[in-house]
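Collaborator request, handled under Task 6.
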Amino acid sequence: MLTVETRHAIDPATAKGLDTAGLRSHFHAGGLFADGEIRLVYTHYDRFIAGGAVPAGGQLTLDMVKECGTASILDRREMGILNIGDSGTVSAAGTDYTVNKGDVLYLGMGSGPVTFSGNGRFYVLSAPAHRKCPSKLIRIEDARRVEMGSAETSNERVILQFLHPEVADSCQLLMGYTQFASGSVWNTMPAHLHDRRMEAYLYFELGPEQRVFHFMGQPDETRHIVMANEEVVISPPWSIHCGAGTGAYTFCWAMAGDNVDFTDMDMVAMGDLR
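Structure tokens returned to the collaborator:
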């Protein structure tokens, strides 16, 4: 079963006037991981797609998505798939990939239908592509590791980069996830912007009673969205994106836009946040 929800892009002046329900209707996506289903959110920010595929021991095939306007989803797109569950299999272009928890699979443009099977919980990301890059399975040990932050500022963390120019070639999709040291709760702080690219966060590995307070908006007009386990937040190019959790968590970040330079960001001084 496939369901697709469309999210239209809005400008910062409109976002400024939204109440809690309005913010969530535009930028929050929950319930994406349902047994026996593929659930996608198609955004008008760089035509980015995020969603979940949970075969639950069976088999699910992702092929035509009407919103993409092509016979098959990857005819003019690329895809990144993160498994946040038990080991599972992803099949595309005649190849079966065993994707373990924490691994990322990249599928290049033209890979055809994508079939998910086994007991994985697959986080699916896709962006338009203008060239074909080779498909590649990236294990955790093959990711690029970047250690940042400190215990003193409550943001000691390791950034694992999977879809990154030094790890796997892609057209415009960047993807990885961040893990925190014990006692650290702040992600992406100090905050930054990158008007050249949109971004999406999947918060996962939260306890059932834990939450992440995700901050968004222009630096002088910040807002927050309360995030639970396995929920996604869409970050427009004009928005900051950072958060603090009430307990341990991991978040998957993914970007699409003008370039694949991970360090292309405009830092925001703490004194400029409102």
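The cover message to the collaborator said: "Helices lie at 12-16, 20-27. The two ends are 43 Å apart (CA to CA). Please let us know whether this matches your experimental observations."
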